[in-house]
């Protein structure tokens, strides 16, 4: 019997045989389960790869949101010098405005602020939608890895070890099986190492995201208070 060679994208499966005799039922099932295990490992690898790409490339849209946020913040700061006057007595008359030091005077034109607020909301909504998708997928990675590790143990217990123990009655060459399975486990170990690095990459990204989020929360309260004062509303 010729060797079985399957150029699987995760890891090449290569098994040699002792003779041309048919495989036992155990061996036939073992090969099917072995391919399924490779498929599961490849699916997990694709998830890790997508998340690696996201958490490294999403830094750019996050930085863009930060720049737009700074523009929004600057527009808010242009209006704040008059805020305490508004809070004390509502909108000022022209004569009252003239009594205020020029360094504290601003107009009541809130349109630039509203424009920047619209720009920021639009950009942030697009950015955060991608983040939600990535976070939802990341939440499944731990369970996926645990399931894969369990599948490895089950394959070892129900197929690999029984074939090795009963090698005299098996057609699969146990040396090729042992070598290939060991290489496969090594490839999976490399993948779990990537998952560990992904954890750090994600944590570093989320730290920047949380910093921006906290600033957004603070400015949101300030803007609400500003418009409440402009409209003569109480806190």
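-> sequence recovered:
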């Amino acid at each position: 019997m010729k060797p079985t060679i399957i150029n699987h994208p995760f890891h090449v499966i290569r098994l040699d045989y002792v003779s041309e005799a048919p495989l036992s039922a155990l061996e036939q099932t073992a090969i099917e389960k072995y391919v399924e295990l490779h498929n599961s490992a490849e699916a997990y690898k694709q998830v890790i790869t997508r998340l690696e790409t996201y958490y490294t490339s999403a830094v750019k849209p996050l930085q863009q949101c930060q720049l737009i946020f700074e523009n929004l913040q600057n527009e808010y700061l242009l209006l704040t010098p008059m805020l305490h006057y508004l809070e004390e007595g509502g909108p000022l008359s022209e004569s009252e405005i003239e009594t205020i030091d020029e360094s504290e005077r601003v107009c009541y034109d809130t349109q630039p602020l509203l424009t920047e607020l619209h720009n920021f909301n639009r950009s942030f909504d697009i950015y955060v939608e991608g983040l939600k998708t990535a976070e939802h997928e990341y939440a499944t990675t731990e369970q996926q890895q645990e399931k894969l590790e369990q599948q490895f143990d089950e394959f070892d217990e129900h197929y690999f070890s029984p074939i090795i123990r009963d090698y005299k009655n098996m057609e699969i060459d146990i040396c090729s099986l042992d070598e290939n399975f060991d290489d496969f486990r090594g490839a999976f170990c490399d993948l779990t190492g990537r998952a560990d690095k992904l954890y750090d990459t994600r944590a570093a990204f989320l730290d920047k995201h949380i910093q921006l989020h906290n600033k957004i929360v603070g400015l949101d309260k300030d803007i609400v208070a500003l418009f409440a004062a402009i409209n003569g509303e109480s806190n």
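Helices lie at 25-57, 59-79, 83-89, 94-98, 111-138, 141-165, 174-230.
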